[in-house]
Amino acid sequence: MATLILVLGDQLTETLPAIAEAVKSKDTILMAEVREEATYVKHHKKKIAFLFSAMRHFAQALRDDNFNVNYVKYTDDNNKGDLLAQVKHEVSVHNYDAVKVTMPGEYRLLKSMEQWENALGIPVTICDDNRFLSTPKEFTDWAEGRKQLRMEFFYREMRRKHNILMEGKNPIGGKWNYDSQNRESMPETQKVPKHTTFDIDDITSDVIELVKNEFNDHFGDIDSFHFAVTRKDALTVLNTFIEERLPNFGQYQDAMVEGKPWLYHSHIAFYLNCGLLTPKEAIQAAEQAYYAGQVPLNSAEGFIRQILGWREYVRGFYWHFMPNLKTDNYFNNSRALPSFFWDAQTNMNCMRQCIKETQQNAYAHHIQRLMVIGNFSLLTELSPEEVQAWYLLVYADAYEWVELPNVAGMILYSDGGNLASKPYVASGSYINKMSNYCKNCGYQVSKKTGPKACPFNYLYWHFIDKHKEKLSNNHRMAMIYKTYGRMKEENIEAMKQDATLFLSKLTKNEEV
Ligand code: FAD
Ligand code: DLZ
Ligand code: SF4
Question: Which residue from 31, 51, 144, 343 puts its CA 20 to 30 A from 74's CA?
Fold first, then answer.
């Protein structure tokens, strides 16, 4: 009995059961670069180059390990363009008795794969993805019966379950969370270590040519490609981060600096999400560095919470709330994305910098995604559908299971508050506090109204005013509505007028 094992572009992990249990003498692993996956949203050029190169290197590593691998390149004559068509073709040519896949990271693909047995006429097994530290069922069991779902409580259970940074039943240091120490802006004189880069080999060079030829109309720059594309190099990124950046990770986690896209972040989401690294090894590396006295607790805990907490939480959340999560639209927003989301041509320096860096690197760090681009998207009432598609295509670490909860739940509040306890909105003063963007801006952050006023200021109060019925009963918004209640009517009116003018400019796609 010969089985065809399909391995997707984000399943590049040899310990996945579907791969580890393959019978090397009989089974074949199929990997395919297909048009449908690369274009159903027009992924960033660098994301496609990264993933295709990582896939080709992984196929080579499997061959070196004596697996039979059938790798279908994008321009091969027998490329059928989508995953099912490719599997169908291979099954018809080679007479496999069964097909195995691993649970995909997208609802769309899972629903399709659940029909494959009918389409192929042979058994199709969907194996578990054992790379996570929790399962979707565990999340649902945890969520059921709770009035409110909050990541912090899920995270504490994960800490206990996996015995991470624990002293018996208690968290090390006596607190679960050290976020209050993790909100510093960065002095201009701070010397940030250079981010880890790799030379381009022949495989990556071929793939870059392919991307230039086939995906030239996709968003983003392809030059200065520097990503790791093998497990060995991804491990170098992780180890260098632990040594050079993790000590300062906590302190400067929320800071933004013009011209410095990488800062003290780890840059490992690319590799965790496609399988070149596992979350467990990243968590253990940070925990060991803390025990060895190399990093402070606020940094180790802060980093571990992102992976053991947020990453696991959003995955459980995704599967629990799909398919509604994708279509929910709590504030009924529908404005089209302004064109500067594609070319960074705006006078708002914070948006210009964050979008430009996204264009260059297929990367922006969390606070840029959340408090600049995300904040702007909610305040300007952009269509959730369009914002979701944008975030899914522009970042090289984006797959729907992780992108959608962050976009729909965290930045747009389009799920009505299942993920976030309140909308993440802020005026320009937050951006000014956490970055140096405002110094080089066409607008003035200190001004609340008028043509030179920072748009985030009046858009913020416009949002607070417009959604008072939906939000003023939220106790986490109480302080804001108290301040709003004390504001002079004429000031609110002036901000609403400026916001209306700004929004109408966006609708007409005029320069802002
Ligand atoms: P670091 O800042 O070094 O953090 C360490 C790791 O923690 C990350 O690699 C990631 O695996 C995990 N992590 C941190 N925050 C989150 C989070 N909110 N959700 C899930 N994992 C988290 N992350 C993605 O991996 N893919 C996405 O498509 C994605 N889209 C996002 C969209 C929005 C609107 C927002 C606000 C956040 C999004 N994130 C996404 C989360 C976070 O911004 C990225 O994980 C992070 O910026 C990746 O860079 P890094 O590896 O340097 O992370
Ligand atoms: C993102 C992506 C891209 C760009 N291309 C491919 C591909 O050609 N072949 C493939 O198997 N996977 C690709 N992927 C990853 C899939 O889209 C991903 O597996 C699903 O979105 C589920 O997470
Ligand atoms: Fe952004 Fe406003 Fe600061 Fe300009 S002034 S960079 S628009 S926050």
Answer: 343
Which of 367, 397, 413 to mutate for ligand 1's pocket (most ligand atoms within 8 Å of CB)? 397
What is the pLDDT, as a whole number, of residue 11? Answer: 98
**How high is the pLDDT of residue 388?**
98
- What spacing in Å lies between the alpha carbon of 432 and ligand 1's midpoint? 22
Domains delineated in the chain:
3-127 (3.40.50.620), 136-209+230-321 (1.25.40.80), 340-507 (1.10.579.10)
Q: Which residue has the tokens 């109204």?
A: 449
Residue 301: its H or E element? helix 297-304
Q: Which residues line ligand 2 (CB under 6 A)?
A: 8-10, 32-34, 37-38, 43, 48, 51, 104-106, 109, 399
| Interval 170-205: pLDDT, tens | 999 999 999 888 889 999 889 999 999 999 999 999
Contact 31, 19 (CB under 8 A): no
Q: Which ligand minimizes its atom distance to the CA of 354? A: 3
User: Tens of pLDDT along 115-125?
Assistant: 999 999 999 99
pLDDT at residue 220 in the model: 98
Three-class SS state of 150: coil
**Distance from the CA of 328 to the center of ligand 2, in angstroms?**
25
Which residues, in sequence order, are bridge partners of residue 335?
A: 382
Q: What is the pTM assigned to this prediction? A: 0.98
Ligand closest in space to the Cα of 512: 3
Look up the ipTM and state it: 0.99
